[in-house]
Amino acid sequence: MLKNEFKREFCNCFSCASFHLKDRNVKHIRVSDAQKVYDVYDFKEEIGHGTFGIVVLAVEKSNTKQWAVKIVHKNIAGATKLIEVNREIQILKVVDHQNIIYLSKVYESPKKLYMVLELCKAELYKIYKHSKPLSEKVTRRVIYQLADAVSYLHKNDVVHRDIKMENILIADNPKNHNDEYFIKLTDFGLSIVKEGVGIQSLMKDYCGTVLYMPPEILQMKTYSELCDVWSIGIIMYMMLYGSNPFYNQNEEILMHNICFEEPKYITEGVSEQAIQLLKCILEKDPVQRMTASQIKEHPWISEKEGQSLSRGQNIVEMMKQFRFEMNSLTDRKSRGMSIICDGLELPSLSNTKLVKAGIKRSTTKVHKDK
């Protein structure tokens, strides 16, 4: 029963979706005996755990390379969770970006799934909790990479839908060993590959982590990939100010704040450029919200991250040019998409509390951080 339900639902999720990305030919090895996996890897200590499985440090016996192996117990996970895990596997098999977690192999036994992932050294959320608020330099470095990864996903019709600080890991940068904030975006269990174009590509599933969810999802409207951009803005605000801009222990008040209240932008210790960028990202109207690609080109990021800028162009000129481009884009979006407004501690095994949504909604469950 469970197996048939999983197959049916999983096929429904991917039968119509077409990846623009080339398959990386990641091996998916089915074994009758789990011992065959242990013959390849020497499993060390547990480095993460969740309701449905664990993440273990493993050493590949043939070359001593270290990996993080996510082990999912099929029977405990159930059909819904297995759909998420396999969705994550399918997406990680095709994505290829330096700031997205790398999937090396998948092993599958009758009882368990083994995802062999690159090993990272830290979690951004733990660094944030210990050192908040973080400097503009560190924030800029993280947000640029995150926007680059998300821009890559969106250009290939992949929407993450659960971007949050807990899903960002810190890894070694093979090109720069002095880079202390080389990030990896993880946990693609709620991700989706968009179908169709224009209005046909909009989504309506209620999912994500409440603290990072945009107004359009909380209000049960159709939404686009710009839901990911909102989440980037929440992370940026948290890093700069040391708190979530809408946080409240009461879930109903939290969701009200996200939908109807504006963040407080304190100028002390945060530059005008950073605040200007935040306002463009945390725009409640998704039609007016900045895209991931535009985040990379904003002067607060581009002037420091080595992006191409015209010679002799000063900050004032850059800001004027940027505002002109944003206004032009807004006009185009308003003309072409106004109907949308009217009608409209480790990857996925983190022990995140599941709660129902608050503002009259279906039984769909979402994550809410403690």
From TrEMBL:
InterPro entries: Kinase-like_dom_sf (IPR011009), Prot_kinase_dom (IPR000719), Protein_kinase_ATP_BS (IPR017441), Ser/Thr_kinase_AS (IPR008271). The keyword Kinase applies. Gene3D superfamilies: Transferase(Phosphotransferase) domain 1. SMART domains: S_TKc. One of its GO terms (molecular function) is ATP binding. Residues 41-301 form the Protein kinase domain. Keywords: ATP-binding, Kinase, Nucleotide-binding, Serine/threonine-protein kinase, Transferase. It comes from the Eukaryota. It holds the Pfam family Pkinase. ATP binds at residue 70. The keyword Zinc-finger does not apply. Belongs to the protein kinase superfamily. This is Serine/threonine-protein kinase 33-like isoform X1. The gene is LOC115888169.
